[in-house]
Amino acid sequence: xxxxxxxxxxxxxxxxxxxxxxxxxxxxxxxxxxxxxxxxxxxxxxxxxxxxxxxxxxxxxxxxxxxxxxxxxxxxxxxxxxxxxxxxxxxxxxxxxxxxxxxxxxxxxxxxxxxxxxxxxxxxxxxxxxxxxxxxxxxxxxxxxxxxxxxxxxxxxxxxxxxxxxxxxxxxxxxxxxxxxxxxxxxxxxxxxxxxxxxxxxxxxxxxxxxxxxxxxxxxxxxxxxxxxxxxxxxxxxxxxxxxxxxxxxxxxxxxxxxxxxxxxxxxxxxxxx
Length: 274
Known about the structure:
Elements: E1 8-11, H1 17-28, E2 32-35, H2 40-52, E3 57-59, H3 69-81, E4 86-89, H4 104-138, E5 145-152, H5 162-181, E6 187-194, E7 204-205, E8 211-215, E9 218-222, E10 224-225, H6 226-234, H7 244-253, E11 266-269
Parallel strand pairs: 1-2, 1-4, 2-3, 4-5, 5-6, 6-11, 7-10
Antiparallel strand pairs: 8-9
């Protein structure tokens, strides 16, 4: 039997990049996956890929910052598959500026996506997880569930990223708090902090013109200048950025039974020590 056979996994931001790889890998281990993306097309594409490989998946399209998203996300899992076993809070992007030029809109957009949304999703999931844990305890069974939050090396501070760094430091605190609160429910709560991972948000560019992505009607500049990429590589002990597949592998580690006694931990996936 596959190690995650029968488990139900919810993964935000799983239509593209790291999230997509997380969804595919969890499915390969046997999990049923609720796929989320801002846009329907990439979410449905991942669902189709999972189903074509013999897995089970459904899409829950929309922004994680929408007022009704957390409840709708949880309801999709419960209605489709009967419960929740794994939650990966992966959705995110950057919107950078130095503090004197950062607007309230920039601040709140990033905090809402990276910190408030995971809080709301986990709050919405708590009654479902608690009820299941109580029933399992009454039956004399132990079932461990997994939460994996996504942070970043930027939690230690990055120039131009007051909003992002604050959110990513905050999710570490949330992880450690919930590990203590939810231990009695047999839930492992851990965190992955990524270093330089190659995605559409970190694509190198030359000159001054970077690419943009549309996030809820905003055109957000993305990418890293080629000179910064080269400097970053020199500081990575393995000598290169990580791939989305490698990044996803670190997330899946915390979803497998092998991590059943690990909780409240932050694992850096950065090609070397921080």
